[in-house]
Design goal:
This protein is an alpha+beta fold and about 180 residues long. It is built from nine helices and five strands; from the N terminus they run αααααβββααββαα.
Length: about 180
């Protein structure tokens, strides 16, 4: 299951980074920096719609080496592989965990990539799967990412005087019924 506790993963990732960088082990630090740079390249390639399989395989191999050499990385790897029931059991009443995923549609070849979300609440017997939108819809809203600048943000979200709702309507509005307690 793709569902992970993102806040826990981010916290663990930050702690792991701090442990590795303060370890004094120059080889471990160098390998960590290489892994981190590879993850950045994967993210950039993915944002441009490029195939990331080769980079992902390389990152996986490097991550395995890091896990062998670092207890902090091993703990991070364990957290990263939580299943949805472990996430559910960590939630309090009124909380929800959301994992965004994308997959290839075998039915619609004109819009092959579909975005969805898994929603888990403390009382969930199973994750709810919510279809959000397809890649074409998202690209129409986001366009081509041009960095963190005000014009891009205003293009996507609008201005204070004139908010845009397209992204909200495609991503968050379909999730609202699953997040209200």
């Amino acid at each position: 299951m793709a569902l992970q506790n993102k806040g826990l993963t981010l916290k663990s990732s930050t702690e792991m980074r701090n442990v590795v960088l303060t370890s004094g082990d120059t080889l471990l630090i160098s390998e960590y920096n290489n892994w981190f740079e590879l993850k950045r390249k994967i993210s950039n390639a993915y944002a441009k719609g490029l195939d990331t399989k080769v980079l992902e395989n390389e990152a996986t191999l490097l991550e395995r080496e890091l896990v062998k050499k670092s207890i902090a990385f091993e703990d991070f790897n364990k957290i990263k592989n939580l299943d949805w029931k472990q996430v559910r059991d960590g939630l309090k009443e009124g909380e929800a965990a959301i994992e965004f995923v994308h997959f290839q549609s075998e039915i619609d070849t004109t819009n092959p990539t579909i975005y969805a979300a898994f929603v888990v609440r403390a009382e969930s017997e199973h994750p709810d799967v919510v279809k959000l939108c397809n890649e074409k819809d998202l690209k129409n809203i986001l366009g081509v990412f041009q960095g963190n600048n005000l014009s891009f943000i205003e293009k996507v979200y609008g201005k204070k005087s004139e908010a845009k709702k397209e992204l909200y309507e495609k991503i968050w509005q379909p999730l609202e019924p699953f997040c209200k307690m």
